[in-house]
Amino acid sequence: MPVMTEKRRSCFVDLFERVEKGLLATAAWFHPVRKSAIARFGATGLPTTQDEEWRYTNVSALEMTAFAPAVPLERPLPAEETAPYLFGDPGGARLVFVNGYYDERLSSVPVLPGNVRPASLAAAMRSDADALRPHLARHAQIERNPFTALNTALFPDGAFVHVPRGVVVERPIQVLYLSTGGGEPTVSHPRTLIVAGEAAQVSVVETFAGLSDGASLTNAVTEIVAGDGAIVDHYQIQREPDAAWHVGLVRSHQGRSATVTSHAITLGGGLIRNDVHAVLDGEGGELDLNGLYVGRGRRHIDSHLRVEHARPHCNSREYYKGILEDASHGVFTGRILVHKDAQKTDAKQTNMNLLLSPDAQVDTKPQLEIFADDVKCTHGATIGQIEESELFYLRSRGISRDDAKRLLIYAFASESLSRVKVAPLRESLEALLFGGAAERRRFQEAQTP
Q1: How far apart are CA 376 and CA 370, in angstroms?
Q2: DSSP for 264-282?
């Protein structure tokens, strides 16, 4: 990977040196990992389009932007500022982070079954190191991604969700990362660690949002560890402003007969890069990756998926859809890697894109890399536009052309949204995109003879 400019390398290394003392005070036991990560970043630098994995996403603008670290607010943020980004019963578990720092006043942490208590990661690093040591930064590899190395070195806080063996958490746990922005561009490094013990069950919803139209960079890492027989239902909702850059990694590792479902819903931002790296490391594992990305203006959305089948008798499904209009650009790269011992693998990958403008574009690149001989693997990608015949059918039923177009877009997206199991979240997303239940009824009525 090409080395970054001395100017940008110095900026981030200098930033680490400025905050190193505070990070060391948070958790001395983790500091050698931070030092290793910043050294790795200094040696490799930001990726360029000469790197095959970043071929379609140019992050050179980051080198020309003087980012300042996001800092805690001097005054408390009013609770009503967070309301648009939360859903469901206000008595549920909610962890709210403002500019990357835990806000206890805005959060709600009731006692859950099995004494599960979602917590600030920084607090857990001080008080519960034994629970973190086997998992934190063990799976999100700093060698593979320079942004992951940067996050590992610099994250000040984040969310820690630990569900012990056999405990079932029925209500979703919400994690909100809210940026306030300001006059100068800011950077934050949220970190989330989800650990589900053997036969445990939990749903976690992460939302990234911003209150200012100012430039910002969110560099997020989420690690999911699912023990044998565990079930983890994970969601990431991206609703940042158009001036925001968002780079994120979701890294999951699952044991025998574990089930992990991860959804990525991208509705905001200017330049977005979402990496998902999943490893099925136990026989009989189940993995579902569901994505929906919506591009408007000149938004650039890059979804980069890597699924590794390391053990036999595992199933994986990738289902990503994109809706692109104006001059937006979508990128999908999906790689399924089947190791030689992963016999009886069943893997399927689907990417479908709907272009609503002649200036919108998409690059899609599904890939299979198979080293076993008894597998069933398929992949497919489609790029299309709204058919005039479909518009004609709806208009023949008295629906205007604009409404007919909206209904067809809803029909395209509804399959992805229907996979969202958390009903209040699904309804919130439908309302954001299409006006909610009323739009669904209109579509159903339009199909009725």
Answers
A1: 10
A2: EEE---SEEEEEEEEEE-S
Look at residue 366 and tell me whether its pLDDT is greater than 70: yes
- Whether 399 contacts 367, CB under 8 Å: no
Neighbouring CB atoms inside 10 A of 359's CB total 13
Per the CB < 8 A criterion, the answer to whether 202 and 123 are in contact is no
Residue with tokens 């983790």: 30
CA 83, distance to chain mean position in Å, is 21
Q: Which amino acid is at 333?
A: T
| Spatial distance between the Cα atoms of 345 and 349, rounded to a whole number of angstroms | 13
Q: If you ran DSSP here, which 8-state letter would residue 77 be given?
A: P
Return contacts of 91-94, CB within 8 angstroms, 24+ apart.
92/171, 92/172, 92/173, 92/174, 93/118, 93/171, 93/173, 93/174, 94/173, 94/174, 94/175, 94/176
Q: Phi and psi for 178 in degrees, rounded to 5?
A: -115, 130
The distance of Cα 45 from the centroid of its chain, to the nearest Å, equals 23
pLDDT tens profile 410-431:
889 988 999 999 999 999 999 8
List C-alpha distances in Å: 407 to 294, 415, 436, 446: 15, 13, 12, 9
Structure confidence by residue, pLDDT tens digits, 99-156: 999 999 999 999 888 889 899 999 999 999 999 999 999 999 999 899 999 999 999 9
E-assigned strands of 112-197?
A: 119-120, 158-163, 173-179, 186-188, 191-196
Six token digits for residue 270? 């200017």
Q: Work out the mean pLDDT of the chain and round it to a whole number.
A: 90
Residue 129 DSSP one-character state: H
| Residue 405 token pair | 């177009």
Q: What span, in angstroms and rounded, lies between the C-alpha atoms of 183 and 213?
A: 10
Tokens coding 228: 């044998």
**pLDDT bracket for residue 2 (50, 70, 90):** very low
pLDDT digit string (tens) for 78-87?
Answer: 989 999 999 9
CA 31, CA 110: separation in Å to the nearest integer?
Answer: 31
Return the amino acid letter for 238: Q
Contact 296, 357 (CB under 8 A): no
The better pLDDT of the pair 61, 342 is held by: 342
pLDDT band at 33 (very low <50, low <70, confident <90, very high): very high
